[in-house]
Specification:
The structure holds two protein chains of two kinds. By secondary structure, chain A is an all-alpha fold. Chain A has a single domain, classed as Rna Polymerase Sigma Factor, Chain: A (Orthogonal Bundle). Helices cover 71% and strands 0% of the residues of chain A. Chain A contains ten helices and no strands. In chain A, helix 2 packs across helix 4. Chain B is mainly alpha-helical. Among the domains of chain B are: 47 residues, no CATH class; 56 residues. Chain B is 83% helix and 0% strand. Chain B has seven helices and no strands. Chain B is elongated, with a radius of gyration of 41 Å. The two termini of chain B are 68 Å apart. The chains are: A mainly alpha, B mainly alpha. The interface between A and B is medium-sized, with 38 and 31 residues.
Chain lengths: 180, 159
Amino acid sequence: MDAGRERDLVERCRRGDEGAFQELVDEHRSLVFALIARVIPDRSRTEDAAQDVFLRMYRGLPYFRGESRLSTWIYRIVANVCAQEAARRPPLASLDDDRARPPAPAAADRQFSDLELRERLEKAIARLPPNQRLLVAAHYLEGIQYEDLAEALNMPMGTVKTHLYRAKQQLRRMLETDLR
Amino acid sequence: MFCDQVVELLEPIAAGDLAPDEGVQRHLASCARCAEALAAARRVDQLLRSRLVPTPPPQFTGRTIARIRRDRWRREQFFDAGFNVAIAAVLAGVVLGVWMIIDRSGLSAISSDLVDLFSEEVVTVARQMAPSMSLYAGATALIATALAIWWWAERDVTL
């Protein structure tokens, strides 16, 4: 969305134009939903949390001064919602829980299939700290820029990259045996 | 170059953010452990790139707007209730103040006579109204029903 149209939409929202806010939701819903769904492992909470983001946007729009880009502000709200969700979520089960069970004889020396590996990757991602999880989720989504994330998370660009590398290093270590 | 130094560079190399220099390349060619770690880092990167992008359900926007309307309605109700309480408090204060002025200025003795007079009038009017009481009760019930329907319709629309 170009800056002029964005400003116009925000202004219309501030004047109480519900249609304008609906346009704003339509514009950002895919990105917000994908981001939230990737960061919050509990699928039953995904839609509620994504709606929370837009509800906070609606409440906060009168105070949005336009000093940062709207997308930056939205990522900041996403980060806050994700942090709150992480705080209320019970501690995750160990990544090796399913390994504790005795393996089926046929599967004992079978290599992990791609699907199983993906499942374990999701579990490993769920074990990352919320900030790193958000970075991993956002970095691989189209349309999200490093600058926005750095500003949204109040971090220099270099720190964002360092966090991202550390997160991936952690993932690699958690999946070490599966990746061989 | 040592493994410790190379390990720190594996993620940027796997992500394509850093091109390995000659020293790193030589180390990777000679150290199976680091080469394996780089392959694993590349695999993680590839897996992350190919993660499914969850899409919102088609009714997402509608449900979000409905939730915002509910939230706005609740907030308005809250402010309305606060406003009503404030108005009631102000009225109570005014009544109390008037009563205190009347009491202190000695007007209460006169007002008690007025109350007696007024009570007698009320009794007279009530006696006159008694035969038509069922008509008044019916009219009151009609007005109450109309008010209840109005409240119900209004409540349904705002939800």
